[in-house]
Design goal:
289 residues; Rossmann fold; SDR_fam; 7 strands; globular; alpha/beta; SDR family NAD(P)-dependent oxidoreductase
Length: 289
C-alpha cells in the first residue's frame, strides 16, 4: 500500500539521521520527497560527515517514492524562497508535508558544564541553526499549505515535554521547536493545516553508530559501553511515525501536540526496520530517568 502516493513532502535537514529516515520512509509510503540540506556531493557542509542529500534521495526512490535532492541552506532566506518557487513551478504549489529537522547542534553542545562556562557564541549559533532555520522554512513554505487549506508540518525535537534536557542551550533549542509546533497549530487551525512536534527515543543514527564504533549489523555490541543502547531505534522508526501522521485523515485532532515514536507505535501499525517496537518512554520510566 502507498498511502502517500501523489503527496508532496519537503524534509528540511534530510542528509542524515532522523531526517534521512523520515525522507526514506515517506518514500516507502509513496510520496515525492524534496530532500533538502546543505551537504551535496563534492560540497559537504561543515558538519564533518560524508552523507549527502543525493544519497538520501536515491534511497527514497529505491524504497518506492521519488526523491528529489535540492541544496537548501535554511539560514539563507533566498534559498528557501527559491524552493517555494520550485514547488509552485513543478507542482502548482502543492505541499502536503513539511518536516523541520534542521539541527547541527551536536558539535556545539558541551555536556557537564553550567551554561556560563559554555561558549556563548556556540549556544547562540545552536539556536540559529536549530530554531531560526525552522522559522525560515515555515515562513516561506507554509503559505503554500494555507493557500490549499491542507497540510501538515512536523517539528522534530527531543522529548515531549518542557523538562530540562541536561544543557541549557540544547534544552532551549529542543523546547523551542515544541512551542513552534504549538504556536503554529493555533494560527494554522483556521486554515485546516496541522502542526505537531515529534521526538524519537534513543536514536541509532549514523553518527551514534560511529560514536560507539559499531555498524547496524552489530549494533548490539555497543551495549558493552552503554546498556541503554539496547533500547535504541533506527531512523526508520521516526520515519514511519512521520509517514503515519501524514497519512492520518484526522491529523487536525493531533495538531499542537508533542508526540513520540513509541507513543505513536501504540496507535498506528508500524514497526522499526527490524520489526521491533522499542518503547523509550516505558524504559525511561522503569530506569527512573
Amino acid at each position: 500500500m502507498k498511502p502517500l502516493e501523489g503527496k508532496i513532502a519537503v524534509v528540511a535537514g534530510a542528509t542524515r539521521g532522523a531526517g534521512r529516515g523520515i525522507a526514506v520512509m515517506l518514500g516507502e509510503a509513496g510520496a515525492t520527497v524534496y530532500v533538502t540540506g546543505r551537504s551535496v556531493r563534492g560540497r559537504p557542509s561543515d558538519m564533518g560527515r560524508t552523507e549527502t542529500i543525493e544519497e538520501t534521495a536515491e534511497l527514497v526512490t529505491a524504497n518506492g517514492g521519488r526523491g528529489i535532492p535540492v541544496r537548501v541552506d535554511y539560514s539563507v532566506e533566498a534559498d528557501v524562497q527559491a524552493l517555494a518557487k520550485l514547488l509552485i513551478e513543478e507542482h502548482s504549489g502543492q505541499l502536503d508535508l513539511l518536516v523541520n529537522d534542521v539541527w547541527g547542534g551536536d558539535s556545539l553542545t558541551e555536556w557537564g558544564k553550567p551554561f556560563w562556562e559554555n561558549s556563548l557564541q556556540d549556544g547562540i549559533l545552536m539556536q540559529q541553526r536549530a530554531v531560526h532555520t525552522h522559522l525560515v522554512a515555515s515562513h516561506y513554505l507554509l503559505p503554500l499549505m494555507v493557500a490549499r487549506k491542507h497540510g501538515l508540518v512536523i517539528e522534530i525535537t527531543d522529548g515531549s515535554n518542557y523538562n530540562y534536557r541536561g544543557n541549557l542551550y540544547y534544552s532551549l533549542a529542543k523546547i523551542s521547536t515544541i512551542h513552534l509546533a504549538q504556536g503554529m497549530a493555533e494560527e494554522l487551525r483556521p486554515h485546516h493545516v496541522a502542526a505537531v512536534a515529534l521526538s524519537p527515543g534513543f536514536l541509532r543514527s549514523e553518527a551514534m553508530l560511529d560514536h560507539f564504533g559499531v555498524t547496524e549489523a552489530n549494533w548490539r555490541d555497543a551495549a558493552q559501553k552503554d546498556i541503554h543502547f539496547l533500547q535504541s531505534e533506527t531512523p526508520a522508526y521516526i520515519g514511519r511515525a512521520a509517514a503515519a501522521l501524514a497519512a492520518d485523515p484526522d491529523i487536525l485532532a493531533k495538531s499542537g501536540r508533542a508526540l513520540t515514536t513509541w507513543g505513536l507505535s501504540e496507535e498506528y501499525p508500524f514497526t522499526d526496520a527490524d520489526g521491533r517496537r522499542p518503547h523509550w518512554g516505558k524504559y525511561a520510566a522503569e530506569q527512573g530517568f
